[in-house]
Amino acid sequence: MSVLVYTESEKGKFKKVAFEVASYAKAVADQMGTTVTAIAVNADDVSELGAYGVDKVLKVNDSKLDMFNAKTYANVIKQAAEKEGTKVVVVSQSADSKYLAPILAVNLDAGYASNVVEAPTSASPFTVKRTAFTNKAFNYTTIDTEVKVVGVSNNSFGLVENSASATSEEYSPNIPENGVHVESVDKASNKVSIADAEIVVSGGRGLKGPENWGMIEDLAEVLGAATACSKPVSDLGWRPHGEHVGQTGKPVASNLYIAIGISGAIQHLAGINASKVKVVINIDPEAPFFKAADYGVVGDAFDIVPKLTEKLKEFKAQNA
Amino acid sequence: MKILVCISHVPDTTSKINFTDDNTKFDTNGVQFVINPNDEFGLTRAMWFKEKQGASVDVVNVGGPETEPTLRKALAIGADGAIRVNTPATDGYAVAKQLANVFKDGGYDLVIAGRESIDYNGAMVPGMLAELIGANFVTNCISLEVDGNNVKAVREIDGGKETVSTTLPLVIGGQKGLVEESDLRIPNMRGIMMARQKPLNVVEAVEATKETSTVKFEKPAPKGAVKLISPDNLDELVSLLHNEAKVI
Q1: Closest Cα to residue A273, out of A297, A291, A298?
Q2: How many CB atoms lie within 10 A of CB B19?
Q3: How far apart are the C-alpha atoms of B94 and A169, rounded to whole Å?
Q4: Which CATH number fits domain B2-217: 3.30.1180.10, 3.40.120.10, 3.40.50.620, 3.40.50.10990?
Q5: Looking at chain B, which terminus has fewer C-beta neighbours within 10 angstroms, N or C?
Q6: CA A8, A13, A15 angle in degrees (round to 5)?
Q7: Which residues of chain A fall short of a pLDDT of 50?
Q8: Residue A54 sits in the same domain as residue A136
Q9: Quick check: A255 contacting B, CB < 8 Å?
Q10: What total of structural domains would you count in chain A?
Q11: ipTM of the complex
């Protein structure tokens, strides 16, 4: 009966979203009067999950699961859900979990609600609040099936500490072969990804050319932020496509989003408006981004950004 | 190769989002509908397969008669035929069920859908459809090559990309990268004229139970005005981010 949560890890370490979905699962379990079971794949130390309310961890360790594969992972989670008699499965909305969740839902005959941003407003009927219309509205949805899959938006519910000590058991599900084979993964290991970043520093056409990105990278470095860009910048080939954020690019839901030389076209705002705090630096006081931002500086980015980086360095030094 | 491209009929990005009937229905009044951008990248890639590899391309939508202009636009861009499953799109699962039936009836090899629609952003239908029809599935797809039965695809992942090999039958969740923005086609007059002659088959829905229901919509609370900080006083910005916003 327990709530099952899939806690993602990378190279043996839990991602931050793992703790967030665990916190969410605990809130659901409390509403339903049950416990939380986590399923962890090839994670080294699962005891950390206890701090976020997980009662039991199913530890799956198998080299066949070293590469993420949506269908295989969905099947493994399905087996765990059936073993535990789970009625609610919680996953994150990382690229991987968004990939596997619809497959899992069909396998479990479960209704699936994605982009969920709050704990269920009611356990019966099971009702969740989701974003819709690219964050321009919320949609309250009931999941009407007996088994339910809930996809929790990253950085929406937050981390809730609930110190308990999680027990763990080795779990060896069947690991089926399937028809999609990962040939190679191309991932910058030394950079914070946009999906995982708490702070994102983003540059637009106002920066005039790719040679001017040094100051964006410097600012990102002092903040431990990921770098991103607007659509024209990626279309012009100034920056790689993987950095394009906006409606047709990557979504951003960071704590802080700093937009530099980005006017704020509606398609751009649609992709980033799930971020909690937005700062805009733009020379044009009429730029539409100022209407969507929390803090704004009107002025020349070439002057402001290096100065801001210095100020932040001083701040970090004082608060280290 | 027979390709089925799923076309979602969505409000243009610039549309004002409002609701009617006590916030239970999307207000379509004055809203311009378009082909879902993620689907349009896929449709354009399908045109490439048609022109270079002799594929046939059908487009499909699950929805009422109001979606037909969007399907006609896809025909004007170059699809060979269109299918409309005559039932409202209630939830992701019910739509996937209808599409699974179209897939089986049509004997398709490849389904190209968008990674998500820009209205409900569910990212559900392509994966559910793949699982219902027992096809392989690759989402966030930014490159797709088909050689006979063999497929090479690249998908975007958090922080990078990954290359996968797979086989038909296959469902793709497509996005920008499948083709570039500059490759997108605006229907020309000849295309529009030809689209009128092309078949748009309306098929009746099969039985499919929805698994989720929308109870109501809500708009976010209005945002406060921006706080402007002088470029000569960036200490204040640092202080606000630390003490007020608490994000650094």
Answers
A1: A291
A2: 17
A3: 37
A4: 3.40.50.620
A5: N
A6: 45
A7: none
A8: yes
A9: yes
A10: 2
A11: 0.96
User: pTM for the full model?
Assistant: 0.96
Residue B18 pLDDT more than 80?
yes
B156 contacts B48 by C-beta, under 8 angstroms? no
- Using CB atoms, pick whichever of B140, B176, B216 lies closest to residue A95: B140
CA–CA gap between residue B91 and residue A225 (Å, rounded)? 37
Distance CA B106, CA B5 (A): 12
Q: Is residue A239 part of a domain?
A: yes
- Distance, in Å, from the CA atom of A98 to the CA atom of B183, rounded to the nearest integer, reads 28
Contact B240, A313 (CB under 8 A): no
Integer Cα distance of A268 and A248 in angstroms: 9
Which of A98, A244, A266 lies at the smallest CB-CB distance from B13? A266
* CA gap B52, A58 in Å, rounded: 49
B-contacting residues in A 140-199 (Cβ below 8 Å) = 140-145, 178-188, 191-196, 198-199
Residue A38: name the closest of A51, B181, A195 by CA: A51
pLDDT tens digits for range A207-227 = 999 999 999 999 999 999 999
3-state secondary structure of B71: helix
